[in-house]
Amino acid sequence: MSYLFLFILGLAVGSFLNVLIDRLPNEESIGGRSRCDECLTKLAWNDLIPVLSYVKLRGKCRYCKMNLSWQYPFIELFTGLVFVVVGSMSPLSLEPAYASGNISINQSLLSLHTSFLRMAAYLGIVSTAIVIFFSDLKYHIIPDSMQILLFAFSFLLVVSFGLTPQLFLDHVIGAFVVITPILFLFLITKGRGMGFGDVKLAFSMGFLLGPLGGLTALYIAFVGGAVVGICLLIAGKRGWKSKIAFGPFLIIGLITMLWWGERILEIVKGLYGV
């Protein structure tokens, strides 16, 4: 699949993700024309071309001349690059199977269909993860609609690898294993130390990654959160009682294990002799 196509697709999707990031936490409709955050003027189509419009307007609103948020081009470019990375790691091709001569064209087409399904699931997961990351970072809210989508795409990805009863059970166990410590923290802190959105996110993360992968992702999230929290304290940006969104760290753990999980688990098993 053309990397240029994936990049352009990612830019367009990233533009839509910006809409979701700012509207869903505020319970606004995702329909309707985008407006300037400052003057609330409806933007024309040529104000909404991913990245290019921002560059052409030099980062300022065409109407009120106020600075536009860096979030918009950043999310668009980031999503475009992520789509290219996903495409490079999940190539869609008949060649590996059909060229060997040991597999029929029908089997090859089935393999291609599975590859499309798998890539769609990966792209869906990373797109949803981007919305969750920035929504929680910016508003301290993880929209329920994104939670549902993340679980749906996770289920789709698991199914694409062949869903047997034992495999399904393993993933369900993973969901409950990972959700347990997060739910415990939520209950003992009465929601002050951990939000219920984090609990729901941990469930999807555990289902997607399984017990060991999910717990490793959770460990990465806790370590990352602790390091950032300490750095913010030292820099004087936060106090001891300040709230820090934990969803972004869960997303970092999830994506890390989704892409490099096998290598990381090999290291973990080697260290603990599992």
TrEMBL record:
<comment type="similarity">
    <text>Belongs to the peptidase A24 family.</text>
</comment>
<feature type="domain" description="Prepilin peptidase A24 N-terminal">
    <location>
        <begin position="8"/>
        <end position="86"/>
    </location>
</feature>
<feature type="transmembrane region" description="Helical">
    <location>
        <begin position="72"/>
        <end position="94"/>
    </location>
</feature>
<dbReference type="GO" id="GO:0004190">
    <property type="term" value="F:aspartic-type endopeptidase activity"/>
</dbReference>
<dbReference type="Pfam" id="PF01478">
    <property type="entry name" value="Peptidase_A24"/>
</dbReference>
<dbReference type="InterPro" id="IPR050882">
    <property type="entry name" value="Prepilin_peptidase/N-MTase"/>
</dbReference>
<protein>
    <recommendedName>
        <fullName>Prepilin peptidase</fullName>
    </recommendedName>
</protein>
<keyword id="KW-0812">Transmembrane</keyword>
<keyword id="KW-1003">Cell membrane</keyword>
<feature type="transmembrane region" description="Helical">
    <location>
        <begin position="146"/>
        <end position="164"/>
    </location>
</feature>
<feature type="transmembrane region" description="Helical">
    <location>
        <begin position="115"/>
        <end position="134"/>
    </location>
</feature>
<dbReference type="GO" id="GO:0005886">
    <property type="term" value="C:plasma membrane"/>
</dbReference>
<dbReference type="Pfam" id="PF06750">
    <property type="entry name" value="A24_N_bact"/>
</dbReference>
<feature type="domain" description="Prepilin type IV endopeptidase peptidase">
    <location>
        <begin position="125"/>
        <end position="230"/>
    </location>
</feature>
<dbReference type="InterPro" id="IPR000045">
    <property type="entry name" value="Prepilin_IV_endopep_pep"/>
</dbReference>
<dbReference type="GO" id="GO:0006465">
    <property type="term" value="P:signal peptide processing"/>
</dbReference>
<keyword id="KW-0472">Membrane</keyword>
<feature type="transmembrane region" description="Helical">
    <location>
        <begin position="244"/>
        <end position="261"/>
    </location>
</feature>
<dbReference type="InterPro" id="IPR010627">
    <property type="entry name" value="Prepilin_pept_A24_N"/>
</dbReference>
<feature type="transmembrane region" description="Helical">
    <location>
        <begin position="171"/>
        <end position="188"/>
    </location>
</feature>
<feature type="transmembrane region" description="Helical">
    <location>
        <begin position="208"/>
        <end position="235"/>
    </location>
</feature>
<keyword id="KW-1133">Transmembrane helix</keyword>
